[in-house]
Amino acid sequence: MISNALVKSGKYILMAAALSSSALLFAANLNLDNSKSTVHVVFKQMEVPVQARFKKFQAQIDYNASKPELSTAKVEIDVNSIDLPAPEYNQEVLKKEWFNAAQFAKASFISTSMKNLGAGKLEVSGNLTIKGKTLAVRFPLQVKTEAKGFSFEGNLPIKRLQFNIGEGEWKDTSMVADEVMIKFKVVTTSP
């Protein structure tokens, strides 16, 4: 029988994975406004939604508003900065079965293309790396003009098991769902 502590830690790990993916896309040699930017992961543990956030991430964004298809983004998330609703599980999700943060301290996203869909919408493709495994991903992104820069907001669905998040007994998706949603909002300012 799996303890409640392990079940809760599994949920938090999934959230962190989702968070890592979402922090990776944003704007044109712009500076990240950390006070207004967020990366969250949402997953279900025993059918109950759980949301976590990453407190530390960096983004290098080169955004071309007139030709968005020329834009690029690189995001790195500090996996150790995960913040779960139950803080006692923050250390649990860093263990080998989940994020293996001792070996893989960073999750990253590097864009490979951005397609302009009009009306401030882009389709972003790139490579997401979590726990040493890299997969190609694609997701919609909403771009809005801010006072001195831009905001980039989107959702990136992933499957945690594709990144080996939740090994051993944690592969059981009846406890912690395989589906994770990375939700992010990145706000930038001009240099």
UniProtKB/TrEMBL annotation:
The record's annotation in SUPFAM superfamilies points to: YceI-like
- Tell me yes or no: is Signal among this UniProt entry's keywords: yes
| UniProt-listed SMART domains | YceI (SM00867)
Signal sequence extent: 1-27
Which UniProt keywords are listed?
Signal
Q: Which residues form the Lipid/polyisoprenoid-binding YceI-like domain?
A: 29-189
Is Signal one of the keywords?
Answer: yes
What protein am I looking at? YceI family protein
Annotated organism of origin: Undibacterium amnicola
